[in-house]
Amino acid sequence: MAAVIETKGLSKVYGDVTALDSVSLSVEKGTLFGLLGPNGSGKTTMIKVLTGQIRPTGGFATVLGLDAEKEGIRVREKVGIIPEQESPPSFLTAMEYLEFVGAVRKIPDIGERAEKWFELLEFGDKKDVLCKDLSRGTRQKLMFAQAFIHEPVLALIDEPLINLDPVMQDVVKEFLSDYVRKGNTIFVSTHILEVAEEICSRFAILHKGKLLHAGSVADVTAGGGHLPGFFLSLVRKGGHA
Amino acid sequence: MPDLFSCLMKEEWRMHSTMFGSISFALFPVMIFGIVFMGSFLLPLLSVAFPAGDLVFLAHASFLLLGFMVGGFGLLGNEMMNRRFGQASLLVYSSRSLPLSERFIFTNFVVKDIVYYFFLWVLPFGGGYIAASPFLGVPLSRALLLLLTLSLSFLLGLCVVFLLSSLYVRSKAACLLIVIFLGIAGGVYTIWSGTNPTLLFPPYLLYSAFSWMMFLGTTIAVVTMFLASVVLFSPEGTGLSRTYRRRLGRLARVLSFLPESPIVAKDFLDLSRSGIGIGQALFSFVLPLVVIWFFLSLLRSSFPPNGLVVIFSLTAGIIASTIYTWVTEFDSFGPYSCLPVAVSTLIAGKMTTFLFLQVLPAVFIGTVAGISAGPEMIAPAIVLCLSISIYAAAVMAFLCGLSPSVLVYDVRVLLTYLVLDGVALVLFAAVSFASSLYAFLSVFLLFPAYLLFRAAGARWDARDPAGI
After folding, report:
1. Which residues of B touch A44 (CB under 8 A)?
2. In whole angstroms, what is the distance from residue B11 CA to residue B91 CA?
3. Chain B residues in contact with chain A using a Cβ-Cβ cutoff of 8 Å
4. A12, A96, A189: which to substitute to probe chain B, counting the most B Cβ within 10 Å?
5. Domain residue spans in chain B?
6. B95 Cβ contact list (under 8 Å, min separation 6)
7. What are phi and psi of A200, to 5 degrees?
8. Per the CB < 8 Å rule, is A76 touching B266?
9. What is the mean predicted confidence (pLDDT) over B296-323?
10. Radius of gyration over alpha carbons of chain A, in Å?
11. Cα(B455)–Cα(B461) distance, rounded to whole angstroms?
């Protein structure tokens, strides 16, 4: 299968802090790939580098065949992104924000598409409320809608279930699994390991910016093991290394 | 109160120092001190063209203006602060998590602003002059008095803005009525007495002829305005779910001839729905310029014919350039980072909105020039004001990208800004003094402005954007 994300020796240093330390990774088309790691392990930095929001200090990354560093705008045209902190513009209504996204992404039938998302995520009653007045959960739904509204072949999403109630988490998990079944790819960063085990087919573990492991979820669970246990043993070992 | 106050002070310091380094920020008051100290030695030369009293007058007007500016920025709401500084949990918005009332926090916040900016701006300025006074033969008591009266000017400006903005939140109509009433009262007094009302500005009077009674009266006025602003303070509403009519799509279609029409349309909605548009226009543009006009008009005799309008147009141009900070205050790059938008595109969008909003200074300066110097000065004044404004905004965009109100405290940025703007101001003041027709030459500033704007895009695209 073709790789939609490929990194070689990818590094990012902020002053004295090494957020990514020579990470080499490959994500194949049609996978729901989980990037796991404790807080501060470099997951969010990885997504930012992959989507051209920030530049790597070493190595390189290609996303959908594009150089993430030099062609960041083209990468962001093609992919969908949910950033770590939900941040729709304060003084647009929820509907206007999706219209704004549609205008920037040049989506012709944005109204119809937006209505589908309001229905799926059950927040149609909030479409004319300013984003600043929305609850955290509703903002997260809105950020989810903007990431998928142009039906990207690849979505990079950072903690997508955070702030969502259990019912909505279920809807989102279902959607993600369906989306991948249609041949798309999802790169999800999370530290909710149970969710990763439930929905991801492949995963990688980052710790202190280093890649500790990359492999298939099925390999871990085959012998009755679980991802949380595997993760904890690896991170604790890595932490003492 | 002391605990919260000291935490607010630390927070303000860290907010600034983490952006461009503690040393660079700590050098800011040192730089002010140095500039004033060295500048003081030019006073004997300057006094040939300007009477010393006029310079003192200008210094008081500047500190009144500084008070307006500091007060205006300090009162930006929670949403503004979050968008500017990321998901910042500023102490001033902590009443929901701490057992402290919003009024108590606001009181501490105002006191913090007074103390912090006193040490950042006022003391270094006064200190520079005090340090130079023995070399200039100025009695130390006069130098100390200047520090006192400049401090009072700053405090008056700050407390006026806090009071008016407290009123503004409670009743926009009442606030507007008071501003109109004060404007009419000033006009009536001018016509009736034939005297410029700014001559009654208490700190200036105090410096000219100190009396304990006037000092007491001025102090009582400052304290009364401070207390009134605290009593009238009403926290911004949260948790409201008011619905709004959809306007973005229609607005973007109207502006579709622009390459960044959705961004410009969004800016207009931001300005209108946040109330910042009207608030800034009033507190950061019209009010300071009306005050400056009254102050400058006292110096009319020091200028050549039409020189007052020229100087006022240049001043209005610099203040109009700060409209770029209004449109960048709403957001950092963060909300756009998930979209195919480059920093340069965002700067271009903000600059386009800025250009639209130049209608406000154009109308304002045209009206003032028409009334004070006759119709023949309207066009030169507008051209001079807008050229300077656009040039200064381009300098700001080049030096600060999308964070002009933050990076201004970086010593290197501020020095470069002052030099680049200063050269243009001196040059076009000189040629326009020679003939008001030469004011039209200022359109040539649009070339460097364009080049700076292009360079700003390339410069800020090449850096990791702030706010993500």
Report:
1. none
2. 8
3. 79, 82-83, 86-87, 239-249, 252, 261-262, 266, 269-270, 273-274, 330-331, 334-335, 337-342, 464-465, 468
4. A96
5. 254-468
6. B101, B102, B105, B235
7. -85, 150
8. no
9. 86
10. 18
11. 10
pLDDT in tens, B326-362: 888 777 788 888 999 999 999 999 999 999 999 999 9
Return mean pLDDT, chain B. Answer: 83
**Both structure tokens of B84:** 């500017």
Q: Is A82 on the interface with B (CB under 8 A)?
A: yes
pLDDT of residue B35: 85
Percentage of chain B with pLDDT > 70? 87
Q: State the maximum Cα–Cα separation within chain A, in Å, rounded to a whole number.
A: 53
In this prediction, residue B87 has a pLDDT band, given cuts at 50, 70 and 90, of: very low
- Are A93 and B244 an interchain contact pair (Cβ–Cβ within 8 Å)? yes
What average pLDDT does range A48-77 have in this prediction? Answer: 94
A133 interfacial to chain B (CB closer than 8 Å): yes
Rounded distance, CA A170 to CA A174, Å?
6
Task: Give yes or no for A163 touching B (CB within 8 A).
Answer: no
Contact A26, A203 (CB under 8 A): no
Contact A90 B274 (CB under 8 A): yes
- Degrees (nearest 5) of the Cα angle A144, A150, A156? 50
| B81 within 8 A of B93, measured Cβ to Cβ | yes
**Partners of residue A215 on adjacent β-strands:** A203
Q: How far is A103 from chain B (nearest CA, A)?
A: 6
Cα→Cα distances A234→A188, A191, B3, B414, Å: 20, 14, 44, 50
Report percent pLDDT > 90 for chain A: 76
* pLDDT at position B387: 97
Segments making up each domain of chain A, as ranges: 3-240
What band does B43 get if pLDDT is binned at 50, 70 and 90? confident
Tokens 């100087």 locate to: B311
Between B78 and B411, whose confidence is greater? B411
Residue A18 pLDDT class (50, 70, 90 cuts): very high
Respond yes or no on whether ipTM tops 0.85: yes
Of the candidates A25, A26, A6, A45, the residue with the CA atom closest to the CA atom of residue A209: A45
- Burial environment of residue B140 by CB neighbours within 10 A (0 to 12, 13 to 18, 19 or more): exposed
Local confidence band at B1 (pLDDT 50, 70, 90 cut-offs): low
Residue range A3-240, CATH number? 3.40.50.300
Q: Do B244 and A129 touch (CB under 8 A)?
A: yes
Strand partners, A61: A7
Other CB atoms within a 10 A radius of the CB of residue B220 amount to 10
Enclosing H/E stretch for B297: helix B287-297
Query: Quick check: B334 and A83 CB within 8 A?
Result: yes
Return the residue in A81, A92, A97, A107 with the most chain B beta carbons within 10 A, the one to mutate for interface testing. A92
- Decide: A138 and A86 in contact? Cβ < 8 Å: no
The DSSP call for residue B137 is T
- pLDDT band for position A27 (cuts 50, 70, 90): very high
Distance from CA of A14 to the nearest CA of B (A): 11
Tell me whether residues B338 and A91 touch, CB distance under 8 A: no
